[in-house]
Amino acid sequence: MIEHHPFGPVVFDASRTLILGSFPGPKAVANGFYYTAPTNQLWPILSAVFGEEAQEYRTFLQKHALAMADVIAACKRPGNSSKDEDLTVLEWLDLAALLRQHPQMT
Fold first, then answer.
1. CA angle at residue 68 from 66 to 69, to 5 degrees?
2. Terminal C-alpha separation, the chain
3. What is the pLDDT of residue 42?
C-alpha cells in the first residue's frame, strides 16, 4: 500500500534550524506529529539541550526557532514496520523548494 506523508513540514517565519527525518512510523502517524512514538528519543534530547520539557511540540519548535520535515513524501512499507530500511521510497520531499520558501533556515 502506498503511504503519503500524513503531515507537512512545520516551519515558522523565525525558524533557523531544520531538523530532517525520514518518514513517520505508525505510532507517530496515529499521534499526529513527528517523533511521538514512545521509544523515540528526539523530544527528550531536545528538552535536555534547551533545558525545558517539550510538551506542546509546535510551541516548543517555534520558541527555539526550529523547523521539522521528513525527506520522504510517499513510500511503501511492509506491514506496520517503522524501520527506515523497510521503506521503499516512491517520492522525495522537494527540499530545494522548501529551502527557497524559507531561506533563513540552515
1. 155
2. 34
3. 96
47 in Cβ contact with 64 (< 8 Å): no
pLDDT digits (tens, 9 = 90+) for 4-55: 999 999 999 999 999 999 999 999 999 999 999 888 999 999 999 999 999 8
Q: Please give the model's pTM, rounded to 2 decimal places.
A: 0.91
Q: Are 87 and 72 in contact (CB under 8 A)?
A: yes
Measure Cα distances from 93 to 47, 58, 99 in Å: 27, 20, 11
88-92 vs 72-76, strand pairing mode: antiparallel
Q: Residue 89 has which C-alpha cell?
A: 521510497
H-helix segments, the chain: 26-31, 42-50, 57-63, 95-101
Helix (H, G, I), strand (E, B) or coil at 92: strand
